[in-house]
Write a structure and sequence with these properties.
Its EC number is 2.6.1.62. This protein has helices at 3-10, 18-29, 69-72, 81-91, 105-117, 131-148, 169-173, 178-181, 185-188, 210-228, 253-264, 323-329, 348-363, 366-380, 382-385, 408-424, 446-465; strands spanning 48-52, 55-58, 63-66, 124-128, 156-160, 194-196, 232-237, 241-242, 248-249, 268-272, 302-305, 317-321, 390-396, 399-404, 427-428, 435-438. The chain is an alpha/beta fold. The protein folds into two domains: 18-45 and 53-79 and 365-465, Aspartate Aminotransferase, domain 1, CATH 3.90.1150.10; 82-364, Aspartate Aminotransferase, domain 2 (3-Layer(aba) Sandwich), CATH 3.40.640.10. The radius of gyration is 23 Å and the shape is globular. The relative contact order is 0.14. The protein binds pyridoxal-5'-phosphate (PLP). The site of pyridoxal-5'-phosphate (PLP) has 14 residues, from helix 6.
Length: 467
């Protein structure tokens, strides 16, 4: 079927609804992300007209609980009055100004406040728009810093099995999800990173704890560093939860181990907190849940942040780094500077949205409130956790995941079937393979928490029965 035929076959009423008309126009003109467009022959496209709180509404007035925070970005609900007010105020002051040669209050304040959250260990913030750009920046900064410091042999990178760091070429080179990477293999081969064992707790052998798996993974990393350490610039990891590979969770001891190894072998450590930062795992930065053997906080050399930092309002990403790295670029020679740029770097509107987001964290004591919410959701999900066809039920902060037990054949269509069934239950949920996960915004009330769990269970029952 061509796209016109798809559209016609979807228009099964003589007078198309508003939703159907928008769907038709979208399928004709918009190429949607992360989508095999042909799947829209059977899976509906949902034209959204507005959002309120945790809910999205379509053009026919149907509503959907946004249980994955619109790709993990939305923290405090759609059309949040406090973020809206900040943006309206900023709109009348300054919508944008280039950040080379100019600066402005929102970007300064945001850098100061984020730096303070790291105890000023990571005191310099470099801005971009999407998560993948932040990853590119961290990789380039690491590479260039070593070069400026006279270690130009350090040109290689290390990532974890199942890692996901974005879709641009540099970010794909440190991504180990074959579905996203394989088509571009030849483009990446020159930069392909070393891939080491993931500390994913599901890999536990008989009698092993999650911490044992973490130590085993750290040992595998050390084997590589012993051989290639002098050629390696940086290790990049998603601390605590490797999200896009299917919410693979690991013990915090892994973070302490890799920090110690990176120090020992003189390798930069990049924490990609794009998905797990901003309170998602229970602390503002996921890495705050780890401590070194003498009880000190663990900080990497670079933190990448994006997604939730603007409350899910505007594209904003940033890389935070240490003074030593910053100083490695500080020179009279322009070529020793970090000349990377994007047109919208440090956009004032996006920074104001981020400042309003940080204000909500402070004003509403969000991290503690989330602890109570998480307990309630975990309790409500117990029937699912005990389900015979559920494996590896897991939770960290405001992320829940479990793996459906089914045949490989059923698994190939499970995610799409689950997504469609969930819509019938007014839920926006998109499993990754056979992994169902919840990453709701932080504003669900008690009834919504219970409802989310009950509806997820109902969808799972009906989809797994037909697996
Ligand atoms: C850990 C991680 N890094 C990087 C990215 C890429 O971010 P973006 O999609 O904004 O480019 C993502 C996106 O899901 C992610 O989860």
């Amino acid at each position: 079927m061509n796209s016109k035929e798809i559209i016609e076959s979807n228009l099964n009423t003589s007078t198309p609804t508003n939703s159907q008309q928008l769907m038709q126009r979208s399928l004709q003109s918009v190429w949607h992300p992360c989508t095999q467009m042909q799947h829209h022959e059977s899976v509906p496209l949902i034209p959204v007209t507005h959002g309120r709180g945790a809910w999205l509404y379509d053009a026919d007035g149907k509503r959907y609980l946004d249980a994955i925070s619109s790709w993990w970005v939305n923290l405090f609900g759609h059309a949040n009055p406090r973020i809206n007010a900040a943006l309206k105020d900023q709109l009348d002051k300054l919508e944008h100004a280039m950040l080379a040669g100019f600066t402005h209050e929102p970007v300064i304040q945001l850098s100061e406040r984020l730096s303070a959250l790291t105890g000023n260990v990571l005191g310099h913030c470099f801005y971009a728009s999407d998560g993948a750009s932040a990853v590119e920046i961290a990789l380039k900064m690491s590479f260039h810093a070593w070069r400026n410091l006279g270690h130009s042999s350090k040109q290689e990178f290390v990532c974890l099995q199942g890692s996901y760091h974005g879709e641009t070429i540099g970010a794909l080179a440190v991504t180990d999800v074959s579905l996203f990477r394989d088509a571009y293999g030849p483009m990446l081969s020159a930069n392909r990173a070393h891939v080491v064992m993931s500390p994913d707790a599901r890999g536990a052998q008989k009698g092993e704890t999650a911490a044992d798996v973490a130590l085993r993974a750290a040992h595998a990393l050390e084997m590589l560093l012993q051989q290639r350490g002098s050629h390696i610039a940086a290790l990049i990891i998603e601390p605590l939860v490797q999200c896009a590979t299917g919410m693979a969770m690991h013990d915090p001891v892994y973070l302490a181990e890799v920090r110690a190894l990176c120090d020992r072998y003189q390798i930069h450590l990049i924490f990609d907190e794009i998905a797990v930062g901003c309170g998602r795992t229970g602390t503002f930065f996921a890495s705050e849940q780890a401590a070194s053997s003498d009880g000190q906080a663990i900080w990497p050399d670079f933190v990448c942040l994006s997604k939730g930092i603007s409350g899910g309002y505007l594209p904003l990403s940033l890389v935070m780094t240490r003074d030593e790295i910053y100083q490695a670029f500080y020179d009279t020679d322009v070529r020793r500077g970090f000349l990377h740029s994007h047109s919208y770097t440090g956009n004032p509107l996006a920074c104001r949205a981020a400042l309003a987001t940080l204000d909500i964290f402070d004003q509403d004591d969000v991290l503690n409130a989330n602890r109570r919410k998480a307990q309630r959701i975990t309790a409500a999900l117990q029937p699912l956790a005990q389900h015979q066809q559920v494996q590896h039920f897991r939770q960290r902060g405001m992320i829940w995941a479990f793996d459906g037990v089914m045949s490989d054949a059923a698994a190939t269509t499970f995610s799409r079937r689950f997504f469609s069934k969930a819509l019938e239950h007014e839920l926006l949920l998109r499993p990754i393979g056979r992994t169902v996960y919840l990453m709701p915004p932080y504003i669900l009330d008690d009834a919504e928490c219970d409802d989310l769990a009950a509806r997820t269970a109902a969808v799972f029952e009906s989809v797994i029965d037909n697996a």
